[in-house]
């Protein structure tokens, strides 16, 4: 589109010049009061073809679209700060980091480590794998070891606890012990913490430390021969470990690495694990100096990551995992500010001083010999790694040539690097000579460059980089690619957008690499699995897509081999995500493929974790693929059914939950598959308590609806005993489940009303219909739903009878819950069951509840009131005086809210009042409302107008009091009100009066209203604008089109596009309602005004006009043809565009009515425009040609087309084929008769001999 | 691609060609177009029963035979494609 804009701009420019000359000549003057001083320069000079492309003032539009539901002054709306602006203003754009919105559980993803590559048995073939490669067996062994360690630790801590308890008896208890106690108590929660505990308190008790947390460094360091060293469990502080730790992972951090090598001892003693780093140290920025190795040194170091400060690195954990884990967002901000301040206060360099001072008159003195420069000593202190660090500390070399103001520019047009990127991309800043690097290094560099571009680059950079990565994926190789990409995804400061881009890279690369990804499957999973539990829906979808693609690329065997070890991982987080990943694999590769494996896992004897995860996989499959489980339902149920009797409580719970998920997915089919679990389930609910019971009940709740009526009734009675017992449970979760199950049981067919009434209702109402239930939103909703479901079975009277008294309860939330239930029940079932006594109580209660409401959310009460009154119908008659009395009294209330509610209530019950023949009462209310039209609160005024409208609608124009002739003049000034609600209700009312009772009002008043209405065309809400143009039509019908038309035509000269567009619509509507012949002469005459906007407006009106009048257009087509001829030959694009769309509507309207001569004539004018490039114009032209195809037939248009299909110029051919194609799509069959006859060539017969046949 | 094409069906010419086999493009030669014309014509003859019966009377063939012949003719309606000079 942009490419054509300059053209338009140019023509507009020329036109403007021309018009300025013209303007001085023309003597036309407009009423400047009405139309404002005519500054034509600011007029819009083009009208896009489509309605929806209008964009008034961008900011206005933006804000208004977002807050269209909010009403208020336009000026106020404009000032509403948008989030984007804020961010830009503050200068520190708040990046949307993923970590900021994650809870603790989700943050556990950062505890995961990228495991080393694994053996790919497919490529390896028969031969035994190289000992250096990790095979499946190795991984399994490691897992087993980990678990064993875990158990040992648990035993130790248990023992300790026992000892402690023994020690508790003794009065003297050291502080130390107290602390240990605290730590130890948190042990039962999960593996991670357990490790922490023991390590913290007694570091020497964890010999397996290293083994338990393989560092990401191993990814890179897994060179042949190393593995064995890793796998044995070194004692901490052993020298051997040192060279295996990968300082080298942070690119360019070589000095750090060597320094590390030199002092292996420290590593063993002082290495906190990544986990602990996150949870203990990093939350407090005070420890920053020691915990953030990289930027901790001088700013020089921060900018030139090549020189990594040694002290920092060695103090912290050497693993990049820890490095990543150690940055909290606060620290980063702090660092940024600090750096900023540092830069501003930096000492001036010699060059800068030279530039500042004049050359003569100054002398450069040597500093005194004793002077030692100390710059920002405080910071230096902070940066210095205080403890232990002395032997290793090196004074960073000062780099005099560095540039302070701007971060060092990345060479070769690379995008800006954030400080946190340096550890990954730092190497790119070293300006090494690329030729000197080895091919591998070059490749690595190339990958880094591309990734940086994808991550931080501009969209075009990103696009090309992404394409290059995809295209060269196989050339780069899976290893180098993933070794670069995956650590980036583990970066703690990753933002949503960055993650999305990197995940996209993985997706593309996966596609290309195909089976080459096999060794990296687990690594990828570690990074992608957290996406499956992300709170962002799109992240979850993205994660599923990647895993699905991954499993298609790697194959089932590899996927199982990669994920099997995680199934009984000690960390619940890992098991959870693995289960979800497995369900995705199942949906990608088919459930049958996975069934044997699932069966084996679910029956694992070794650990309950494996069984738990296996069953969870089934649950996740059910949730993920829904009703597609049906073919495999029986086998899935069989796989998990034994879990109901498992010795472990967690397994029993998850089994029941999985059954619930399966039943929910299968509903309403598949009950036969659940036969085998019915007995254990129903037996289980008698045996279990608490969580397990809740899960069992949930499963039952989902299974019962699948049953046939007879069985459902039997099983419901069985479960109901337990349910009724659990009604009293104080547990919130249990309450929700019980409510849900009751709802499910009650809604099944076989359960009779009598049973519910006698056995369930008393206990149900006693336990659940209490005030406390109204306080929690979810309980509230569930209770209302369940009660409504019960009411569907037992009828209105029973339920309403039980709760109607509660409408007068003193707690408002409770009253609201009662009201909502009554509303839903009455709407569903009507009120014929309600007897006279109950009716009285009901109305009384409703009135009470309505009057006593204080909260902001009035809708529940209003809806409830409306529903009950409407459903009672004529039975409300005796209560109406009372209701109206209340309304009247409340209309006079001091509080605006109360007045508004009263007015809203009138609009709800107006129809019923009419049914009750209370016209006099309504008239009275009408007068009261009329008196309140001076209301100053716009919200209330809007409601009052709405109430008036509903009364007018019901009793009609003639009987209305106050009479229409008094009412309307009172409304005219209100039309000026800019509040959206007022505008909408007012224009609706005025439109209704204009439609039905225009004769009650003098024409002059209507003209006045016409002028007011023009302002309404500016409204933002489409409904208001539409009502306005319709009102123009009604008014024109009432007082004749001439005056209205004059007003409208004058309005074509205004500047705002929206206003003009609406005016053209209004003109077309007036023409439609008053017949075109009353309007066309004046309209066509207006085309003579030498002003762009007016002429375009006329053309647009014509376009709308012919659209509205359809085949009536055949009488007018000859009249407007000369005008359209002129417009189609105009220099201005918009003229031609609008005329073309008029031609389109005209052609479509008169198709088949014998106007072909005129249409062919017009087609001759339209056709030369086919080479236009402006999108609006060309679209309009093409549509006009399509219209011609309909009106003239495809053959005629084909004949126009034939001349250019084989034109020597390609540009011409393209356009003609485009027309041919749309012709072909529209009327293929009709073309057969019209194709040209082609001459045969030597080998080919092109003639269609059949057409020559003749009988 | 032209800016104007971005919004209509021509924006995805490949898709268009896949969906409507008979549509053309600027690089289409005489032969390809003629093949489309012929096939469209035969399809039309077969599709309109009166036409089919007209042809069968003229050829003195049964309608079924005529339909079969037309369908057979759709295979290579213009003979083998001519050799391309460029390739």
Explained architecture:
The complex is a heterodimer of chains A (1255) and B (87). Chain A has 65 helices and no strands. Among the domains of chain A are: 853-958; 963-1037, Leucine-rich Repeat Variant. With 1255 residues, chain A is mainly α. The radius of gyration of chain A is 40 Å and the shape is globular. The model of chain A is unreliable at 25-31, 35-93, 173-326 and 376-390 (pLDDT under 50). Chain B is mostly helical and 87 residues long. Chain B has a domain at 30-76. In chain B, 54% of the residues lie in helices and 0% in strands. Chain B contains 4 helices and no strands. Chain B has helices at 13-19, 30-47, 49-59, 63-73. In chain B, α2 (30-47) runs antiparallel to α4 and α3 (49-59) crosses α4. Chains A and B meet through α63 and α65 of A and α2 and α3 of B.
Descriptive keywords:
heterodimer, A: 1255 residues, mainly alpha, Leucine-rich Repeat Variant, 65% helix, B: 87 residues, elongated, nucleus (chain A), SF3b_su1 (chain A), repeat (chain A), mRNA splicing (chain A), spliceosome (chain A)
Annotate the secondary structure layout.
The complex is a heterodimer of chains A (1255) and B (87).
Chain A: H1 5-25, H2 32-35, H3 58-66, H4 74-79, H5 83-90, H6 104-107, H7 121-124, H8 136-168, H9 175-185, H10 191-201, H11 209-212, H12 217-221, H13 226-231, H14 254-262, H15 264-270, H16 274-281, H17 288-291, H18 299-303, H19 310-315, H20 320-326, H21 329-344, H22 350-356, H23 377-383, H24 422-425, H25 439-456, H26 459-471, H27 473-476, H28 478-489, H29 496-513, H30 521-532, H31 537-554, H32 556-567, H33 572-589, H34 591-602, H35 608-625, H36 633-640, H37 649-666, H38 675-687, H39 690-703, H40 709-726, H41 732-747, H42 753-768, H43 777-794, H44 796-803, H45 812-829, H46 836-852, H47 859-872, H48 880-891, H49 896-915, H50 919-931, H51 938-959, H52 964-974, H53 980-997, H54 1003-1016, H55 1022-1039, H56 1041-1051, H57 1057-1073, H58 1080-1086, H59 1092-1109, H60 1117-1128, H61 1133-1150, H62 1156-1166, H63 1175-1192, H64 1194-1205, H65 1210-1232
Chain B: H1 13-19, H2 30-47, H3 49-59, H4 63-73
Helix pairs in contact in B: 2-4, 3-4
